[in-house]
């Protein structure tokens, strides 16, 4: 299906649907969490889409920044999103709050590369919560936006913590997450 965009694989018809789900040449979907934006396009067009359609997303420059999630006590499912630019690439930082069951909320913090899975393997990221003589750190390889936030959460390939932990590190309902990107 994606031969016109560069895929050169020839597969048996039974293997085709599975490959098309993970094909690097399939169009990229808008990486913003939530299902409201249905945009799809080439990797080269993703940043321009984000800058025009999602103007509220803040971009910080540098490999070591603070991602500030404000009002973490807002009820229901909430997403905080920002961009980090360093090493000639753009990374999407996402903090997602979900209600797992009545009264029990979990937070998921994820870093995605606006790039391919192969490019993502060249980087590592560290998320760190600090405060009150406590430190919580998660280090991993960013995922490509081709994989997306739901896949990272489904595989628990992200920093996961509950409301009680969030309150240990929050200041007046705001949570600062130190984000460091490095090359491998």
Automatic annotation (TrEMBL):
Pfam families noted in UniProt: Sina_TRAF, Sina_ZnF
MF GO annotations: ligase activity; ubiquitin conjugating enzyme binding; ubiquitin protein ligase activity; zinc ion binding
Annotated CDD domains: Sina
EC number: 2.3.2.27
Keyword Zinc: yes
UniProt superkingdom: Eukaryota
Keyword Zinc-finger: yes
CC annotations in GO: cytoplasm
Record-annotated SIAH-type domain positions: 1-55
Entry keywords, A to Z: Ligase, Metal-binding, Transferase, Ubl conjugation pathway, Zinc, Zinc-finger
Annotated pathway: Protein modification; protein ubiquitination
Full protein name: E3 ubiquitin-protein ligase
């Amino acid at each position: 299906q994606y031969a016109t965009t560069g895929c050169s694989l020839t597969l048996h018809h039974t293997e085709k649907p599975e490959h098309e789900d993970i094909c690097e040449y399939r169009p990229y979907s808008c990486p913003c969490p939530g299902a409201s934006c249905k945009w799809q396009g080439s990797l080269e067009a993703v940043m321009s889409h984000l800058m025009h359609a999602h103007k509220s997303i803040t971009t910080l420059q540098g490999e070591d920044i603070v991602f500030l999630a404000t009002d973490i006590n807002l009820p229901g499912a909430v997403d905080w999103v920002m961009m980090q630019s360093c090493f000639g690439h753009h990374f999407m930082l996402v903090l997602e709050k979900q209600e797992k069951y009545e009264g029990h909320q979990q937070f998921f913090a994820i870093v995605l590369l606006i790039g391919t899975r192969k490019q993502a393997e060249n980087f590592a990221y560290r998320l760190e919560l600090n405060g009150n003589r406590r430190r919580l750190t998660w280090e991993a390889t960013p995922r490509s936006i081709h994989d997306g936030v739901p896949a990272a959460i489904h595989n628990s390939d992200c920093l996961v913590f509950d409301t009680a932990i969030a309150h240990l590190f929050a200041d007046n309902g705001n949570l600062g997450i130190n984000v460091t990107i490095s090359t491998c």
